[in-house]
Design brief:
Layout lengths: L4 E4 L3 H9 L4 E4 L5 H7 L6 E4 L8 E3 L5 E4 L4 H6 L1 H6 L1 H9 L3 H6 L2 H6 L50 H7 L3 E6 L2 E6 H4 L18 E7 L8 E6 L10 E10 L2 E10 L6 E2 L1 H7 L6 H12 L11 H21 L1
Length: 330
Amino acid sequence: MREFGYERAFDVSGAVALLGADPDARYLGGGTNLVDLMKSGVERPARLVDVRELPLDRVEFANSGELRIGATVTNSDLAAHPDVRRHYPALAQAVLAGASGQLRNMATVGGNLLQRTRCGYFTDLAKPCNKRVPGSGCPAVEGEHHNHAILGASTRCVATHPSDMAVALTAFDAVVSYETADGSGELPLAEFYLPVGDTPHLETALPPGALITGVTLPAAPVAARSRYRKVRERASYAFAIGSIAAALDVRDGVVREVRLAFGAVASRPWRARAAERALTGGPASAEAFAAAADAELAAARPLPHNGYKVPLMRNLVVAMLTELTEEAAR
């Protein structure tokens, strides 16, 4: 590990100033991803700016139905918050599915959003990787890729985004707030993660030196009728091989509103817009759910060893929406 400096920030402007003074510095929240990458030599910051003491650790549910989440809220506190559990159950379920209890106690909301999209080749310095060294190649395309992307990938990178929390936030149109030396700004989560394209080393649209200060979920009554499901290769803590956040409003057998987002299928959380359009205003039936899934997955381009993800995601869509429909009927 490279020798590095350490400073603790106690206010947002001070944190931004510290990072601005050293372009080779990084913000440190819980460190559950960054410190691991530092140990392996993938990340080599000259300085860490600790932001855990910033006053960004609150979860607030407004009378308007809007949910505001501070960037330093821990994953454990987010999943346990009564307003999150009541109004956004899929978000609480996603966070609980995302890691062990010890990691959830340390990991922060802002850090979770910024964890690196990665695979085994990214963390192995003996192998080429376009995310580490642009232009060096992507060995996963011809190598081990059974848990890699089937949607939105490119020949430059086929890794998948690992966050469970971000999948649920994507389904509910989350907006990320940030602060820079030039002032504050916002990014819809749909625009926060960049398409992989030819520049997989560029992962987010955050301006240089920006500090995430919070996440806002607009009012969404349908979110109270939501679920998150994660499929993984073992029951213990593991990355997903496929996941889904789903919310459904059914009245008189007709889909009035639906939210769908997929995880572990792309370099970023994947909002299933085509499936949502196919379902809205139509019957809430297994046949309609399957057809909507097929509409979304028509764009899938699986590699030789990850084609199983197409029927997996199709089955997840049908199962989750059927369960939500049955719940609504009770």
